[in-house]
Amino acid sequence: MSVLSAVLPVFAIIAAGYGFGRWRRVGEDGVALLNNYVVWLALPALLFDFMAEADWALLGQGRFILVFSVGMGVTLALSMLWSRRDPLGERAIQGLAAAYANTAYLGIPLLQGLLGAVGVAAAVLGSMLTVSLLFALCVALVEFDLHRGAGIGRTIGKAALGVARNPLVFAPVLGLVWNAAGLGMPAPARTFLTLLGGSTTPVALATIGVFLAIPRPKAPAGPVAVTTILKLLVQPLATAAMLLLLPLPREWAAAALLLAAMPTGTGPFMAAQLYERDVALTARVILISTLVSVGTLSVLAMVLLG
């Protein structure tokens, strides 16, 4: 499959979701419903099915995990250093927006089209790191800022419990357990998971478009520009620097760079809404980074795989 053949349909579905959201005037409740369907049903089914039947050699990628994690961590650290005069909670939300790549909703379908099974494996690993490591850390920092004096151990424990309850974390873990147990997949269960998981890509991509279609309040241009640059430029560059130190096979290296170059996902916006911090900034960064990434991801994919 050519690069354009893989990339264009993905962004076309996002555009279709945007048009649908504007045409039908879908509001926040509609986005929440679509998002809940993907997060609690479709994507967990896809992740469980993939992990339950994956080749272990495809998942044991310590170097890839380290390369992607360091690129993500460097981006978070630079964002928090840049905003060091702000309160810790705001810095954590801004850092989350800068380093939280859209590895699941956008990464899985895009890398599946470009790299097949390796791409899906990389996107699943990247999603688990983004949700279980980055998101948990930033939420813990916000909680610590809110409850100074309550003890960092309790705060981290609460954040870890919240992550453990996230279906995007426990579904692939259960799939790994199923795989390790060698239970096999009954035909009706495989059909169920295939049908449900197969709805992930179109619904998730359309959800991004609907989210982008909702008018958002403007945010200060400076922080938005810096956060977007950190996401689309600095994170891929930090990941590329790590690849010089820890080279990976061509397909895994391409996957690491493409995932690092993904726009900001919706996770930071959910956290910002929950804690009522930097809601406008996260929404604007998601919008701008997604629009810009249509070009940047297409060019990067052609350079790496064309």
From TrEMBL:
GO terms for biological process: transmembrane transport. Keywords: Cell membrane, Membrane, Transmembrane, Transmembrane helix, Transport. InterPro entries: Mem_transp_PIN-like, Na+/solute_symporter_sf. The chain crosses the membrane at residues 33-52, 64-82, 114-142, 163-181, 193-214, 226-246, 252-272, 284-305. It comes from the Bacteria. The keyword Signal does not apply. GO terms for cellular component: plasma membrane. The keyword Lipid metabolism does not apply. It is a multi-pass membrane protein. It is found in: Cell membrane. Belongs to the auxin efflux carrier (TC 2.A.69) family. PANTHER family: AUXIN EFFLUX CARRIER FAMILY PROTEIN, TRANSPORTER AUXIN EFFLUX CARRIER EC FAMILY. This is AEC family transporter. It comes from Stakelama tenebrarum.
